[in-house]
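Explain this one:

_____
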Amino acid sequence: MAGTMPLLDTDAVLSHFSAAVLHGLAVPASTLTRVWVTRSSAGGGKLSPQLHVLKAPLRPEDITVADGYVTTSLARTVVDLARHAPPEYGLAAADLALRRGLPRESLEEQIDRWPRRPGNRRARYVVERADGRSESFGESWSRLVMCQLGIPLPTLQVNLTVGGSNYRSDFGWLDLGLLGEFDGRIKYAELLRPGQTAADVVMEEKGRQEDLLSFGWHMVRWGSRELSSPPTFGRRLELARKHAAERMTPAKLEALRRTLRA
């Protein structure tokens, strides 16, 4: 990217997947082989193995500086990404933007301003379902597949106190006493404290799950492999929901609710 920018016209702005990287958004690895830029001036686009130039209007508020480069704004970048990328990347980007404090209306305005732009339907789909409480790509991807399968959406970031210890779970179907966790390599890496190994974190997670199960919560876990096969993921969730519902009683549900923290 650093070698390409000096060769471009001065009106070229890093956009789409290149801007997304600078804004800290997840992108498909296959998109990193090209630099993506947008030009607001006259002229056509350009596609080569190293460069993808698009022509589209850019307002002053659509342009910012990220990591020292002139790029499209966060709102413009998220919507451009949602138009062009697989929907799990669009939803993860929109989730992250909301978590950073960007109003949903800023994303909606980007879609409404250019109603005929290709990919707008996909972008609107993910923006409508974006939730700033989601804390990882895997969590966003999980919610997307749940939406596609018609599975009731859970509460996000469930905080609990069990046996004097505080816990948080990615997802919770609270009326069933069922907690859900996305497991991924990146997630475990983020949990590492100085001096810890990945095995230490896995053992902590195992002890945490045993505490929750012993109190009466049910747990279902999944990873990228299950999400890559939505029917498999759907069967796992529905079986867990069915088993949790069969074992739930009003007294047990009331006891579980007392463990919830705001």
In short: The chain has eleven helices and eleven strands.
